[in-house]
Write a structure and sequence with these properties.
This protein is 65% helix and 9% strand. The protein has seven helices and eleven strands. Helix 1 (2-25) runs antiparallel to helix 2.
């Protein structure tokens, strides 16, 4: 029963032992299971093969110790059986050792061959690398030579291109100047033509106005004449009415007189009849009758005389009435002619007024168009100063200068100012070189200085006044104004040649700078032993004056000699230097 219990144990130990050796000796990444052999690393392969043999030998030693222990614990028969088993196992182990030896020889030969191949391959790669290195060195030298040649050619080409570009720019500037001059000449000619047209239109308007005034005068005279004629007509009508009334009255008198004559005739006939009847009467009666007849004859003669006189008067009145009628007809004809003339004059006047209105409208349109053209011409013509311009950046053309983009100030002291120096937030460093102060620097939308060259050309083109606005950190403002500001050219070191009269709410501290040259930190032109510009900024210093408008900017009020200040070293929050033609 003991051997039955021992043999399975021994077999299990053997199986587990070999499985452990085999599993421990193989690499996880070795797909071929060749004793941990790796084609990429011969040292690693040898290491794992040595490890496998070491584990196998250790297991054999351990197995022998276990067998020895078993031999000590079992009887002779069991020992014989165990010995036989051990011998068989030893035989197998020997065979295994032979296989291991063969594997070691194979590995050793493989490793050596691989080393030789790797060495040969490495040497070949080294040789190839050396050849490539030599080739690269040669290529590098060729590239360097070509680069030097290309650099020389590039420099020559750049020089040629620079000269060509300069020539093109000169030609373009000449062409632009010519075109601008031609455009200005054309605008001037157009302006002169429009001015001539405007003068002609004004003359036409004056002529039309004169004609209109003459028409008005004629119309007034006509109205006066018409009034006089109407007055005469009214007078004639009154006289005619009066004559008609007199005529009617006279006709009534004639009618009455005629009736009286008829009555007298009738009475005379009656008397004659009575006389005939009474002829045979007494003589006394006849004499009485005679006297009555004589009286009647006298009365009749008197009445005939009155009647003839009345007839003559009537004929005269009739003649006068006819003359009045003729004059009335003539007056009516004249009135008709005058009314016709008046109607004609009114029609002519209306036509003249219509023509004058049309002419006025046409002239008004021409004047508006001319005014618009003048405005357009004025807008196209370069501005020679900031006069009349709003605050902001504008294109202006000052004598001696090309058109420049200038910052104008239109809200201070009547406007028209050109801003030459502005600081308000410290965003631009004003500790600049002489060259930078000569050419100008900064941004006109922020802080900037226009440049000493430009300032010289501008202030020498005509008389300019200077206005310095000083803003303090407590919110107050002061100003200093000079009425004749001029600086010299670079030969004079941009000397402050003139300031003129002073006025302002600030202290007049620039009077000590008069006739002084400009200094910067890299060009000392003051009369002090050191360089004032290194201490308190560039300026027209004599002995480090009180005006330090190019000094260091502080965002708070400080008492610092190096600060941007005007008097007593009290730092300013903002400053503007403005100029305009006087």
């Amino acid at each position: 029963m003991r051997w039955k219990s021992v043999f399975p144990l021994v077999g299990l130990i053997l199986v587990l032992g070999f499985q452990h050796v085999i599993s421990e000796s193989l690499l996880p990444n070795d797909n071929n299971r060749e004793c941990g052999f790796s084609s990429d690393d011969k040292d690693l392969c040898a290491l794992y093969c040595y490890r496998s043999m070491k584990l196998g030998l250790a297991y054999i030693i351990e197995l022998k110790e276990k067998i020895k222990i078993l031999e000590e614990n079992h009887s002779g028969r069991e020992n014989n059986q165990l010995s036989n088993a051990v011998e068989k196992l030893q035989s197998k182990i020997d065979q295994q050792n032979i296989q291991i030896a063969n594997i070691n020889d194979f590995i050793t030969n493989s490793v050596r061959q691989k080393e030789v191949e790797e060495k040969a391959k490495s040497q070949t790669e080294i040789d190839n690398f050396n050849r490539k290195l030599e080739q690269l060195k040669e290529n590098l030298e060729n590239v360097q030579r070509q680069a030097a040649k290309d650099k020389e050619e590039s420099l020559a080409e750049q020089k040629y291109l620079r000269n060509k570009i300069e020539q093109i720019l000169r030609d373009k500037n000449t062409e632009i100047d010519g075109a601008r001059n031609r455009e200005i000449e054309n605008l001037k000619e157009k302006l002169a033509s429009q001015k001539s047209d405007l003068e002609k239109a004004v003359k036409d308007l004056e002529s039309k106005n004169k004609e209109f005034e003459e028409y008005q005068t004629k119309e007034k005279n006509s109205n006066n004449k018409i009034g006089e004629l109407n007055s005469k007509i009214s007078s004639l009508q009154k006289n005619i009415q009066k004559e008609m009334e007199e005529k009617a009255k006279f006709q009534t008198e004639i009618d009455n007189f005629t009736r009286k004559v008829e009555q007298l005739k009738e009475n005379l006939e009656n008397v004659q009849l009575q006389a005939a009847k009474d002829k045979e009467g007494s003589l006394a009666e006849q004499r009485n009758r005679k006297r009555e007849i004589e009286n009647l004859k006298e009365k009749l003669a008197t009445q005939n005389s009155d009647l003839h006189k009345a007839i003559k008067d009537l004929e005269s009145k009739t003649k006068e009435s006819k003359e009045y009628q003729t004059r009335e007809n003539i007056s009516s004809n004249k009135i008709g002619e005058l009314n016709s003339k008046i109607s004609s004059l009114k029609k002519s006047l209306e036509e003249s007024e219509t023509q004058l209105t049309d002419s006025n409208h046409l002239l008004e349109r021409q004047l508006n168009q001319t005014a618009q053209n003048l405005i357009e011409c004025r807008e196209k013509l370069p501005k020679t100063s900031c006069k009349g311009l709003s605050s902001g950046i504008h294109k202006i053309e000052i004598a001696g200068l090309d058109p420049i983009s200038a910052l104008c100030e239109g809200d201070i002291e009547g406007g028209g100012w050109l801003v030459i120096h502005k600081r308000f937030d410290g965003s631009v460093d004003f500790n600049r070189t002489w060259t930078e102060y000569r050419n100008g620097f900064g941004n006109k939308e922020g802080e900037f200085f226009i440049g000493l060259d430009n300032l010289h050309l501008i202030t020498n083109s005509q008389t300019y006044e200077l206005y310095v606005q000083l803003g303090y950190h407590d919110g107050t403002f002061r100003f200093a104004s000079y009425d004749n500001f001029t600086i010299g050219n670079e030969t004079t070191k941009y000397k402050l040649e003139s300031l003129g009269g002073f006025k302002g709410t600030a202290i007049d501290v620039m009077k000590v700078n008069l006739n002084q040259a400009f200094s910067s930190f890299d060009q000392d032109n003051d009369q002090w032993g050191g360089n004032c510009a290194q201490w308190c900024g560039a300026w027209w210093h004599r002995y480090c004056s009180d005006a330090h408008l190019n000094g260091k900017y502080f965002n708070r009020e400080v008492d610092d000699y190096s600060s941007m200040s005007w008097w007593m070293s009290i730092s300013l929050k903002s400053v503007q230097m403005l100029i305009r033609p006087k």
